[in-house]
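Inputs:
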Amino acid sequence: MAANFWESTQRRHWQFSKDELAQMRENLEESEQSLVQMFPLPQRRHLNIYFNQLTGVSELGRLGKRLGVRQQALATAQTYLKRFYCTVEIRRTNPYLVIATALYLALDSLTLDISRLGECEFYMISEMHSQLIVHQPYRTLTSLQSDLFLSQDEANLALSIVNDHYMTDLPLLYPPHIIALTAILLALVLRPNSPGGTATNLAAATAALVQAQSQVPARTGGSSQHTTGVSDKERQQEARLNKVQRYAGFLTESNVDIEGMVDCTQELISFYECHEQYNDKITREQINRFVKARGLDKP
Amino acid sequence: MDLDTHDRGAKGGYQSKVKVMDKYRVVGFISSGTYGRVYKAHGRQGQPGDFAIKKFKPDKEGEQIQYTGISQSAIREMALCSELRHDNVIRLIEIILEDKCIFMVFEYAEHDLLQIIHHHTQQPRHNIPPSTVKSIMFQLLNGCQYLHTNWVLHRDLKPANIMVTSSGQVKIGDLGLARLFHKPLHSLFSGDKVVVTIWYRAPELLLGSRHYTPAIDLWAVGCIFAELLSLRPIFKGEEAKMDKKTVPFQRNQMQKIVEIMGLPTKERWPFLTSMPEYSNLSTLTPPILHPGHHHHPHHPHHPHHKSSSAAASTSQLEKWYYGYINAHASTSSPASNGSLTSLGAEGYRLLAGLLEYDPEKRLTAAQALHHPFFGGSGSASGMGMGNASSTERISGNCFEGLKTAYPTRRVSQDDNDIRTSSLPGTKRSGLPDDSLRPVKRVKEA
């Protein structure tokens, strides 16, 4: 239910361990070995980036953006897509039809020409056992924004991280509040131009989490000594550190799954790295190849 | 059809993994409505118990059924029912999507409140035993509280939608109009403009409120409570039909409420004056006080006078209540397990708390469960819900202690073929007076 994630079908049926998820996917590929060999596909995260562009979350968005679709509905559609491809081998489907159907299903009010989509809708709902209610991190994010005194920039960054996590397996691995908390953490520590890049960012995030986990009260490294001659930049830096430490304290008190957050952090940072290798052309071509070759685009 | 097709949803068409006829044997037809039809079924694979299978009718009917996309309300009902798990909410077993049709399989309940109330109106008319009333109300409120704490509004509570199993468990059914009310993607007002069968429709909806809250369900629960006592709908208005897409003011229904509850005032209901239909209130006939009579032919329009306005807003509910719980005392036969008199003053207070004009002052489901009417503990010993600190026990079996059994649901044999079923033209087969009930949704009428 909307209020009770712990009793929800999402919690009971659509959250997996990494091993379970890997096993399910392996089974799917084994059931269609020849297809898998004949039609190689880019890594899953790259497929997700491609699908994400189609659904319109990104700036390049097409279908979704044109429709003025709201963020939560898009996130729901992406979740449907993920659930569906947990139980159905992608090469057996026309992903474009499946994406359109997921959007249609998530959107309540979208009207399109229906006949083929209507059939795919039956397929999709059936595979998902009519479990269509999706819990998302957005609510936690919104409610914590004021509690944690996040600036608008930080909140926006956290929001875009939440949007990005739909391109990873995280929605199938962790409850939404863990995602939201991780996104806030990353929004507080990520600095696009920090020397050392992702490694530094990852280190900063992990340090904060280790601190939260070990429940050691935070200490800013001798900052109190700098009473004079502090530059604005240093002052900002210090304010930010304080914020991160306050947040670590908050996590400690809230008794959340810190290990889960560590894992989410790693997944997200590794996703951003892998995003850099994404090749739109290759991804599109490889998908179109099996769709065309198998006549999946024909009614 | 080619059952070996592997590329389902791609080539060769979608085929359901589960076939409704392989798994269930339909034994009869229960009812039909705008949504489709409901059948009674037994399991073919050793599943215990009986089942009610709700088949949604395809949007367009004809020789060749096409996929047309599943309606918003069906999707909503499917998604919500998949999440809900509570003793007092009808349980969904599974949903089968097969051959362009949707089959929702529910646990079967032998009775519903409409049928139980109807049974008591049969000669000799006799009241529903107070212990049964109490148990039904407690279980109904319990289910309601569960829905509301999970941000679900039922929006169409009425006796026909409240199921009762043969072991006396009350189950809220038919979530066809239910919605989540926590930050919905679309305003709750958009989409379906008119909800709740008119006799159970809350005054704020009648006055044009667009703000849907759980309180609308509690008003309906109040109406059902009254109906369990009097065996007839307390506010039995006539529905004004939709006129060219504009929703008319339901004058007749509001008049029925005013006759018993008095005219609402802004003193008791501060937001009253900001209701869209507020101006229409002045066109209603204020109730005329006739001691001992609540039903009387009302006179044509009465001009308001300052002196009469206090009387006009006086509630007749207490008089109504005692009229019923005492009137039946003499007629109740020994077999009817006691007079309603025992429900006493707390029964009136609970009723008045549920039929409160101001939705913000109206009892919530949780408050009602803690009402002294139930012993004040908010827990029922028979239901395994907390300890029994109440002085009196409320059973989780509303039939407990009854000497007679209610007749079981009538199931017709005319149409047992779930696969072919033609247009749903037939009404519910069970009760003769059901045809008098207003249709479920105005916009579809």
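The longest helix of chain B spans residues 130-149. Flag for discussion at group meeting.
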